[in-house]
Amino acid sequence: MLTLLSGCGSSESSGSSASSGSSGSESSGGSKSADPITVKIGLLKNVTHAPAFVAIKKGYLQDRLGANVKVEVQGFNNGSDFSTAMATGEIDIGYVGPSPVINQYVRSKNIKIVSGANNGGAVLVARKGAGVTSVKDLAGKLVAVPTKGSTNEISLRLLLQEQGLKVTTDKSGVQIIAMAPADTLTAMKQGQVDAALLPEPWGTQIANEGIGEIAVDWDQVPPNKGNYPLTIIVASDGFLKAHRDLAKSVLLANEDAIQFIQGHPEDTYKLVSDELKELTGKGLDAELIKAALSHLSLTTNIDQEALQAMAQVAVDAGYIKDVGADGLDLTGLYDLSLLKETQEGK
Amino acid sequence: MHWGWRFPSALQTMRTFYDGMADGQLLKATLGSLRRILVAFGLSCAIGIMLGVLFARSRLLDETFGFVVVALQTVPSIAWLPFAIIWFGLNDFAVVFITTIGATWTMTIASRSGIKNIPPIYVKSAQMFGTGRGLRLFYQVMVPAAIPQLITGMRMAWAFAWRALVSGELIARGVGLGQLLEEGRSLGDTSLMLCIVLVIAILGTISDHLVFKRIEDRVLTLYGLQTAKA
């Protein structure tokens, strides 16, 4: 194990990893083209990814990975972009919502879910004046989600299913449009979008700016009334194969971060805001982050049943095709052995 | 390296095409895009020819606004999309708007040079036969004389319109090939993406061969610039 501590320890491990690096270096040989001592971490720029922000800002990630590992952070706008980047080897490991991962997995079969980070944290927000106070009112309206096939869209589809509403491309049912959350805020201001199912803090922000109101709170959003994986940790097969120990370090850092957030919520806000500022150039109000963090529950556990149900929605929506008679087989999607190790190691 | 999903096989792509046609998704998208491009193309031809004729006939306009048109032609039409979204919203209208803009300037310049390059002897003899300087001269002499250039302009405008259309559709809402392409990207569905690219290419080829090339051939034959095909 290379983890932890300074001085000679790190120079030793840097020596060893440099030698292992030269053996499997840049060339075409391995399935991973990255420099062995650079770990490329992906994440989305939402407060629902707070454990990632804290793990980075608080230095947990660097501590766990060791001084000879260079951490490279890449922010993404949505899970689709993230999943494509991971499947094509642009990032090694990172935080994302599960549905884009499932969509990508059924096609490329080269990424794995290794841990959870956070359950819930998305809300349905309706524009003021759109006449939407409950899900039923969404008929004939235009609803935005961050990206096609996103976890939020799956939640939205489940919500509509419960009310017997259909997703259509005209006014006879509910129209869904994919739009970056920042654009959704503008579009809602202009009255172009009637409602949106968004990860926090966007929902709260839209409500606070007086543009809209929360129509369905986070603990009512399906599946499982908000208790479904919304942020998980995913790693590429190549990374898991070549650097299993580093993947485990990331999981440990994730646990550190979750513990920190739970123990020191007040200190978390600034860290989250600072990291968001680095990623997007704009920090966030502490009040907003506080509200957002109260709208989710942090956990490393993965509810596979919920994910299976969400995958089924994607199948029904036509996003996943060629499903066998016995349903979608997602067994190859999970590698929870590392999670088990870290949980039992405590 | 797992390349299988990055480059979908011919079989996969054909299946996606078949599925898309069978469940109507691809068919609807294709029809939606065709509807938009036809509206935009019609508009840009009308506006383009009108402006072109004005520029060709009026030196003052040509030397003032003509310059603006050349400048506008260099602006990729997608650059107007942010404006279009603010002016019209993220809807069909915005897409038709940028598609029209994308094709109009090319059409304007083509028709302007088409009219300008009419041999003066045509116009003079027509006037001698009593067409006057007005509308009759325009549609009896100038339009037919400029047709070879106009057709070239239309072919180019059609290609420009497709470019603008797909890039607009990638962002706007609605049902179209661009939206479907974006959906394919979001879902990592490479076979769908390739399918759309092929559909666009096929539509482009078909329209060029069945419409523009035919008209061009007929016109060239009619004008004695090419012998009729057997």
Number of helices of chain A: 14
CATH superfamily of the largest domain in chain A: Periplasmic binding protein-like II
Under the CATH scheme, the architecture of chain B is Orthogonal Bundle
Q: Biggest interface: chains and residue counts?
A: A-B, 30 and 23 residues
What's the arrangement of strands in the largest beta sheet of chain A? 2-1-3-10-4-11
Q: Under the CATH scheme, which class of the largest domain in chain A? A: Alpha Beta
**Rg of chain A from C-alpha positions?**
20 Å
- Shape, principal axes of CA atoms of chain B: elongated
In terms of DSSP E residues, the strand content of chain B is under 5%
What is the H-and-E element order of chain B? Answer: HHHHHHHHH
What's the total number of strands of chain B?
Answer: 0
Q: Give the helix/strand class of chain A.
A: alpha/beta
Structural shape of chain A: globular
Q: What quaternary form is this?
A: heterodimer
Output mean pLDDT of chain B: 87
Helix share bin of chain A = 40-55%
Can you tell me the CATH topology of the largest domain in chain A? D-Maltodextrin-Binding Protein, domain 2
CATH topology tier name of chain B: MetI-like fold
Alpha-carbon distance between the two ends of chain B = 54 Å
What is the overall pLDDT average of chain A? 86
